[in-house]
Amino acid sequence: MLLKNKIALVTGSTNNIGLEIARAFAREGAKVIVHSRHEEAAKGVAEEIGGDYFAADVSRPEELEQLFDRIQQKHRRLDILVNTVAHSTKNDILETSLAEWNRIMAINLTGYFICIQHAARIMKDNGGGVIINISAGSGERGSPGTAVYSISKGAINALTRQAAVDLAPHKIRVNAVISGIVGTPLGSREMGNRKLEYDSIPLKRIGQPEEVAEAVLFLASEKAGYITNAILPVDGGRMNSMGSVSRG
Ligand SMILES: NC(=O)c1ccc[n+]([C@@H]2O[C@H](COP(=O)([O-])OP(=O)(O)OC[C@H]3O[C@@H](n4cnc5c(N)ncnc54)[C@H](OP(=O)(O)O)[C@@H]3O)[C@@H](O)[C@H]2O)c1
Fold first, then answer.
1. What is the CA radius of gyration of the chain?
2. Best residue for ligand 1 mutational test, from 45, 177, 186, 189 (most atoms within 8 Å of Cβ)
3. Which of 17-31, 181-195, 230-244 has the lowest mean pLDDT?
4. Active site members
5. Pair 7, 75: CB distance under 8 Å
6. Counting atoms of ligand 1 from 1, which one is nearest the CA of 107?
7. Taking 70 as the threshold, does the pLDDT of residue 162 lie above it?
8. Would you list the domain boundaries of the chain?
9. Ligand 1 within 6 A of 179 CB?
10. Cα–chain-centroid distance for residue 246?
């Protein structure tokens, strides 16, 4: 088992990519803390995989503080954090209101930052750990009409690199996975209008949440013990061919 007896928090793990990461981690022996805003949903997944659960809105710092306090008290340590929560946007730079900017940045970027801070403080007292951030190709290439989402993902890539440098002395590895378009509601939305983009994926298909989860599992495991500061695309080669038709 790749993660035997590890304690892992996967934010946003009641749906799609986060859910498959939680399932893969549990299959490999980890005790997973399942998380979303909705306690019943988190409890249901936790029961399925034999994990713990906690409900918290990542845009509310006080709720995240309670989440990590609970992890400290109940589990006494944290070995792995995976940040997955993101909300998409549909407006370009000119259409974006300040209210939308602040709302999306609080969820997509500040939420990741606060979770990293809390997790790293626990990990450094326990001899190390692993942090993985889920990102998107639009953070590297830009994407028409998804301004705040794309900018938040670019910032997550910068956050990943900075955290990798700052946390390495504490034996905490920090990496990101750039998910391609995967078969989730977010990934399949408007696929009819995205035919050009679909054709431009070199592997000529969207991915599955399980395929992203397997890459995250590898990065979380000791098999990736010398990997930090990496931003790994799991996207069928899409980022290499992303152009002005891309979204997401
Ligand atoms: N799907 C794609 O094609 C695609 C492509 C590129 C990148 N990605 C990235 O992959 C990641 C996961 O995407 P996904 O499509 O799997 O997401 P998803 O299906 O929308 O799932 C999001 C999860 O986060 C939880 N959540 C949402 N808002 C929250 C909040 N404010 N606080 C706490 N939990 C919250 C949701 O549960 P509740 O609603 O119950 O809180 C759910 O468990 C994201 O970072 C996304 O940007 C996805």
1. 17
2. 186
3. 181-195
4. 149
5. yes
6. 31
7. yes
8. 7-234
9. yes
10. 20
Beta bridge partners of 9: 33, 81
Ligand 1 pocket, 85 CB below 6 A?
yes
Assess contact for 134 and 157: CB atoms under 8 A: no
- CATH superfamily, domain at 7-234: NAD(P)-binding Rossmann-like Domain (3.40.50.720)
Sort 36 into a burial class: Cβ within 10 Å, 0-12 / 13-18 / 19+: buried
- Identify the three-state secondary structure at position 132: strand
Q: Band the pLDDT of 200: cuts 50, 70, 90.
A: confident
Q: For residue 234, list its beta bridge partners.
A: 179
Going by the DSSP 8-state scheme, the letter that residue 34 receives in this structure is E
Stronger pLDDT, 186 or 214, i.e. the higher one: 214
Torsions phi, psi for 21 (to 5 deg): -65, -45
20 band by pLDDT with thresholds 50, 70 and 90: very high
Alpha-helical segments (H) within the chain: 16-27, 39-49, 61-75, 98-105, 111-125, 138-141, 147-167, 185-188, 195-199, 209-220
Whole-model pTM over 0.85? yes
Q: pLDDT tens digit string along 109-153?
A: 999 999 999 999 999 999 999 999 999 999 999 888 999 999 999
